[in-house]
Amino acid sequence: MQQQIISKLTAELMEAEEKLVPVEPLSVRYPELSVKDSYDIQLEWVQKKLEEGRVVIGKKVGLTSKAMQNMLGVNEPDYGHLLDHMKVATGSVLSRKDFIKPKVEAEIGFILKEDLRGPNVTYVDVLMATEALVPTLEIIDSRIEDWKIRLVDTVADNGSSARAVVGEPFYEIDQVDLRTLSMTLVKNGEVTATGAGAAALGHPAYAIAWLANKLADYNISLKAGELILPGALSAAIDIDSGDEVTAAFGKLGSVTISFRD
Amino acid sequence: MTVTKRSDMEIVDYLLRAESDVKEVVKITDQYPDLSIDEAYDLQKKLIERRMDKTKTKRLGIKLGLTSKAKQEMMGVHEAIYGYLLSDMLALEWEPLQQHRLIHPKAEPEIAFIMGEDLMGEEVTAEDVMKAAKYVVAAIEVIDSRYKDFRFTLPDVVADNCSSAKLILGSKMVKPEELDLANIGMVMSKNGEMAATGAGSAVLGHPAEAVAWAVQKLAQRGEGLKNGDIVLSGALSEAIAFDMDDTIVAQFDGLGSVTLSSRYVK
Questions:
Q1: Which residues of chain A does B90 touch, with a Cβ-Cβ cutoff of 8 Å?
Q2: What pLDDT is attached to residue A92?
Q3: The whole model's pTM is what?
Q4: What CATH code is carried by the domain that includes residue A252?
Q5: Where in the sequence is the domain holding A15, given as residue range(s)?
Q6: Which residue of A119, A122, A174 is in closest CB contact with B173?
Q7: b/e string for A231-246 if b means 16 or more Cβ within 10 A?
Q8: Phi and psi of B165, rounded to 5°?
Q9: What is the nearest CA distance from A38 to chain B, expressed in angstroms?
Q10: Residues linked to residue B246 through DSSP beta bridges, in sequence order
């Protein structure tokens, strides 16, 4: 794909995000767009944001459940970047007007204390490099019309990232079994979805190891201090104004977000 | 038998080919009856270096073998043995093993240590091991001797990296001081039927004693354990053979369980 088109699509997605007006799927307009092209778009988007003074605070893995992978016809996850303006504290109230068609998913966030650079990063390496776990709600919002995404669309659109709502860090990682750690997603007082850590690629730390090894292809490493989101523990749920969503993760604690008009 | 001049790299390639071709081979002491244990460790070192280079993997840790009196007597020896674990040996509870990549595998229930600091020296004690270890985890080690019918002498098995093939860890990590490691009971079942039982003390009286022995032994070669190493401290019971479609579960008091399942995936 020509660099010119990569830059044009990057600009389109940036504008869609700023003006909150979604664009037609790139995959429909540019059927020849490859996954590599779409990562190039994402990386150019990140570069532009950095030029605007934004800071990368972490990364996220997406498409970590078999169900989501089947839906998009892929057999591996994808990833996106988390920037400083996306981070929101638990208990915050967000305006529905700042989003297009938001959804929310619950994830076990990892805060690293050491860099991780692939290849050959194992999930045990990830556990040993982890400073704390953080209950997290990821708000995703596609800049593609009606979420009509294929893999290349969501990758170009930074994994559909919008916000990361973070709770209190939990430091005693030996006190939880990360495959069976529970997750209960409650919307307006009702249990809407449940899951456990293993939903993220078998083990959340394994999803992060996948990311560290994948990023080695781009000569990017995971850095100490970064927040890494290993993937949703259940299907994403819609969130609208007036909604309050809480994810409770057993011993890890919980995280809440509300939407107003 | 004619005495042939030994070529280390030929032996190393012979064993690595057996592994990659998934084909058992005649044990090397048939041709080199004078091979000493010390020379076997030299061969093991060369084998590991070559295997890491060929498979683009890294060191994952150390494993111990022959840590029970019964096994030592069976082999007519008085000490344990050690080998190296590499990153591609780490298998996952949530992905079945590929049976067709293994020759005649057996499963051993073990207590794994994950080191939180480097540990080296000929004077290292079990207490030092307990301090330097960050976590203990339930584990199943898959051993798969490259030798015909799993038959070998001590130098053979040492040169073959102590039959190392795969390891699977449970997902519960516990600080070592929170458990009485010698008195951890273990029950292993295969396809729902009990296959073996044992306790932590099966490993040289205490798993940390076994690891301390390995550190001392490594020190004689100028080596030691590294921060982040996974150490398989030795089997808590006899090894159980498995085939495709088998599921093996090992449950440990206080450490939870670890499951191995095997499929024929080609």
A1: 122-124
A2: 98
A3: 0.92
A4: 3.90.850.10
A5: 3-260
A6: A174
A7: bbbbbbeebeeebebb
A8: -140, -60
A9: 29
A10: none
